[in-house]
Design goal:
The protein is an alpha+beta fold and 461 residues long. It folds into three domains: 27-175, DNA methylase specificity domains (Adenine-n6-DNA-methyltransferase TaqI, Chain A, domain 2), CATH 3.90.220; 177-226 and 402-446, Helix Hairpins (Orthogonal Bundle), CATH 1.10.287.1120; 249-397, Alpha-Beta Complex (Adenine-n6-DNA-methyltransferase TaqI, Chain A, domain 2). 32% of the residues lie in helices and 17% in strands. The chain has helices spanning 2-13, 80-85, 136-144, 146-154, 179-217, 253-256, 302-305, 357-364, 367-377, 387-390, 400-438, 446-449, and strands at 28-31, 36-40, 54-57, 77-78, 96-99, 108-110, 120-121, 125-130, 173-176, 236-237, 244-245, 249-252, 257-261, 279-282, 287-288, 291-292, 298-300, 317-321, 329-332, 339-341, 345-350, 394-397. The protein has a four-stranded antiparallel sheet, with helices on one face. Strands 13-21-18-19 form a four-stranded antiparallel sheet. Helix 1 (2-13) runs antiparallel to helix 5 and helix 3 (136-144) packs across helix 4 (146-154). The protein is globular, with a radius of gyration of 27 Å. The two termini are 35 Å apart. Mean pLDDT is 90; it is low at 8-21 and 453-461.
């Protein structure tokens, strides 16, 4: 499927290598106020309910990539009796939804499938329907593109409580190809979207597999024969973390770890950050998917780097955030350049070879550590992980060879997930490029409409 998608994208992008400024002669620049119907939503007094009869969509149900996500975790409903009396806000398939207020003002989605026979929107969304000039899917991609999003953001009013007025459609311009071309453009972009969704599903599948493996491996482990332990074949004992293999221990993190963070800022200020240099400064905002995103790091001078050897990174170590979003974890394998820590991050290294660092990384990304953080945060408004608390974290500790086996199994799953995520990112880049090309007419799809194979070129005039 991946090879087919790559070939497909190459064929479509191959129509024209030139980025032409003028739009095609048979295209028009149209203000959507001439065409669209704009519909707002409503809820009963008291708001929607967590369970009920008619799904009620709001801003929380719109994803950043233009999908409607209605799940058990975010479901909201209104009574059927209220829905029957509604004069507005009833959803149809292919409706475009726009978040019209709040922090996510301007997010858009399209209703590809009616997951319920009847669906409503609340007062925080608009429905947009074209009457005749636009294919709904084409119009959706325009709203989702950089061209549409810029126009939307330019029309948002207010800063404390941002909002998008219903008048935003006035002088809101969209390039209008002939309808057959609109449909073909939407079809191409939909093909990429389906590939992204399939890749998402694969990623979620492997994340579920990993979660299940972590539950097993961090409570039962894997013996020297590569077999998962069970009560029928191995001995278990009681522990503060529940039943664990007889060979394991439960230890406090502080007794087996060197744990260090930057003491205050040590005089370091943001004015000293450098855009380029030889010495990275790692902070909590650089954590991404269990790793450090080095491209987002700033730099510091050699003097600042050498100020504290305890927080100079060496590789094969674990980092944990202690401020802001506490408990984010990253494992550093190798360093592309010398690096030191900014404030808000702990570094952990084993004392006397007590543990395999990658094993600790997986413990800290497991439900065991999640529960520890939840207990610390319960009833508190302070978002800080204090060292005095962190050192008391209790973790299961198998013998070193078993730690390594556990880490290797989970690393294999992570490698699959990372490969799929990289493919998804590639598709998303392709999609952004396609929207830039196809929605402006720089790349034409007329060859496809005429039954071509996608290898010819069609230039706008």
């Amino acid at each position: 499927m991946k090879l087919q998608m790559c070939n497909f994208l190459k064929g479509v992008r191959g129509f024209s290598k030139d980025m032409l400024v003028n739009i095609p002669q048979d295209w028009r620049k149209v203000s959507i106020e001439r065409d669209v119907v704009l519909i707002s939503g409503i809820r009963p007094s008291g708001g929607a309910l967590d369970e009920g009869q008619i799904p009620s969509l709001g801003g929380e149900h719109i994803t950043n990539d233009g999908r409607v996500k209605f799940t058990e975790d975010n479901a909201k409903y209104i009574p059927e009796s209220f829905f029957r009396k509604m004069r507005k806000g009833k959803v149809k398939r292919w409706d475009i939804l726009i978040n019209k207020d709040g922090a996510n003002t301007g997010k858009v989605a399209i209703v590809r499938e009616m997951f319920s026979p009847e669906i409503a929107i609340n007062e925080h969304l608009f429905i947009v329907r074209s009457t005749k000039l636009f294919d709904q899917k084409y119009l959706f991609y325009w709203f989702l593109s950089s061209f549409g999003q810029k126009q939307i953001k330019d029309r948002i009013t207010g800063s404390a409580q941002p909002g998008l007025p219903s008048s935003f459609i006035k002088n809101f311009y969209v390039l209008k190809p002939p309808l057959p071309e609109q449909r073909k453009i939407a079809e191409i972009l939909e093909t990429v979207d389906r590939a992204i969704e399939k890749t998402d599903a694969i990623i979620e599948k492997y994340k579920r597999i990993k979660y299940g493996l972590m539950q097993d491996l961090l409570t039962r482990g894997i013996d020297e024969n590569g077999k998962s332990r069970s009560k029928e074949t191995h001995r278990f004992k009681d522990s503060p973390l529940g039943r664990i293999p007889e060979e394991w221990e439960v230890v406090e993190l502080g007794k087996i770890s060197f744990l260090k963070g930057r003491i205050g800022w040590q005089g370091l200020t943001t004015q000293e950050y450098l855009e380029d240099g030889k010495y990275y400064l790692v902070t909590g905002i650089n954590f991404k998917n269990g790793q450090i995103d080095w491209e987002t790091c700033v730099y510091v001078t050699r003097r600042r780097y050498e100020m504290d050897k305890n927080i100079q990174l060496k590789g094969n170590e674990v980092l944990v955030t202690k401020d802001g979003t506490i408990g984010k974890v990253a494992y550093i394998d190798k360093l592309p350049k010398p690096a030191t820590l900014g404030t808000g991050v702990f570094i952990l290294r084993p004392l006397e070879n007590a543990y395999y660092p990658k094993y600790l990384y997986y413990v800290l990304t497991s439900p065991i550590f999640d529960r520890f953080i939840d207990i610390l945060q319960a009833g508190s408004t302070i978002n800080h992980l204090y060292q005095r608390d962190f050192v008391k974290f209790k973790l299961p500790l198998p013998p070193l060879p078993e730690q390594k086996r556990i880490a290797e199994i989970l690393s294999q799953i992570d490698a699959v997930i990372e490969k799929e995520e990289m493919y998804k990112e590639k598709l998303e880049r392709e999609k952004r490029g396609l929207m830039e090309d196809l929605l402006t007419g720089r790349v034409r799809v007329t060859q496809l409409l005429n039954g071509g194979d996608g290898n010819g070129k069609e230039r706008s005039s």
